[in-house]
Structures
1.
Amino acid sequence: MRSLLTYPALVWKFSNAWIVAYSETECFRSSALFPARFLLFLRHMEIAAIQTHGLTRRFGELTAVDDVTFSVAKGQFFGFLGPNGAGKSTTIKMLTGLLEPSAGTVEILGKPFSASALDVKRQIGVVPEGMALFGRLTATEYLHFVGRMYGLDRATTNQRTEELLEFMQLANETKKLVTDFSHGMQKKLALAAAVIHGPKVLFLDEPFEGVDAIAAGMLKAMLQGMIHRGATIFLTTHVLEIVERLCSHVAIIHQGRLVANGSLEELRAGVASTLPGAEGGQRLTMEEIFLSIVGAGDQQESAQELSWLA
């Protein structure tokens, strides 16, 4: 509560009435300015879209994700980065209920996943690492199934299926089985299935892999539109240019542990301050930030060349 009330002036429209607060002191002096239901509204605004605390996953002796704690605010386009094997996909599987944490907690939209799994799953969309499509269905049949599973009525499901197939450039593939789709076509179908119910939180694991440049541009525009309408997107990808273009906040995981978390500008400033030769006006790319944080730059310098390619 206090973080929202410390701004010099707050102007909110609530229940068709303007409520103006000039300072924290004035807010508490006049109960008329902040009725109980308005305080409840402010508390609701503080609820994170995604919240983890001490999230851990072990596979025997291997700790794939180790005590990861972070928060993603509603409406953020959040990039979750890391080298191969760092724990990105394992983290997404725990955030979406596909994998049980060994320790720690996950909350989605303020609800503990372990206690409200079914309710939470109705409000999220997921493009998982392996896509998990039903190969013996057509694209239309698959989207009809997914839409009905999410509780959409038949008319809404049919309408959204038609729009999605047209948008994803799959409208001419209605008779082809999903198993016969190219990898890029399957990726577009998986994304269509993830958004057919209008999720409040969307989890994407390498969504642009195998997608052609034209379709990738369309998908980026769609995702940015979702953000503008208030959705939250959690993205993992190795294409750092996409992160730099789309994401407002980034977290980096390395060897199972969270090593960086903040806005792009915060990460830029933090990394620039550690570089001895960095100029004040230097604007680091996401690749430079990433390599500096995970320490890959030192590995590249010391890497041995292959004898037959030297």
2.
Amino acid sequence: MSEPVVSPPADSAAPETSKLARLGRSAAYAIVLALLALFVAPGPVSRALGTFIVISALLLGWEVYIALGQATGGALPLTDFPWKMPHWQAIAEQLLQPARRNGPELLVAILAKAGWVTWREAIVGFLAGSLLGFALGTLFAHSQLLERSLLPYAVASQTVPILALAPMIVSALGAGWVPVAVISAYLTFFPVTVNTLRGLLSPEPMALDLMRSYAAPRWAVLWKLRVPAALPYIFTALKVSATGSVVGAIVGELPSSRSDGLAAAILRASGNYASEPEKLWAAIVMASLVGILFFAAIALLERGVMRSRPADES
């Protein structure tokens, strides 16, 4: 009798390898489309299509990373257990599900309300820190004595961990939104100070001599020459500080016992990370969106202000 033919065992990694190959081909197509968007399409279309391609590439890279981790048996970080790094489709679906089982509100609505609360605290700190930074930069630009004596302390203030300062600020000012705004301002003022100082000192010496030859007072030199020349530097600092203020607000909400901000949402989601990791990732996505939208708002403001400048000031 002939021996029965034993079929070889199925390769369990074959589906993952096939999926990885498909994702790789899609990534190649995305790169080609990105190149076409950058070099072929008109300006506005190129920017919009480029943004879409970048977001698509990031989401695709997310899935490629998960597939690589599964194909290598969880050798990559966050891929040894499926719940550590869920698929982005699962995160998007979780946003459109009720926050609690059979609850009335969707998770995205709750996170949007928490993001609004955090953004209000961040913008108060952003405005206060920006005004303080501009004032300090102006003083340092007009007085080398103040610059040499106070600027080192401003630099030293940024070396202290904000997690160490936050509880002390909350203890001094009490619970509520005020200490959160102060912590946000703390992370905002330093970039504005440094860039304002750099920008106010950027005009050419010949332009300063010309203003002095007309006996222009200091305030006229400041507002008619120094500030217009410093605007690109200041807006660069404001864009950096916009995202920093959101981070400061989230950090400040932790010791201040704020229950309606993004920090509380992140803490609640982290407690159930093993069972519902999508909720934590959804909260992180919402916090990122708040910072991105704040950055975009400052960028739009910069575009409007810079376009309104006279041609000889550009």
3.
Amino acid sequence: MFAGVALLTLLVIGSVLVLRPFIASLVWAAVLAYATWPVYEWLRAKLHGRSSTAASAMTVLLLLSIVAPSPPWCEPCG
């Protein structure tokens, strides 16, 4: 029993250490997904339940809304 708990603890610690550099990106992804979900649902309803088409359209719209405002001469990351 103790060996199993110790192994699970090591596995969780190892997973956290591996995911540590990506935590900020994962949080931003979760915020974007939560914030744009109602728009996706509305778009999917307008497209008569076509989930793939709505997902593709949302991907293009989000890409344009994030990339388009950035001028090409802008330094990446700040």
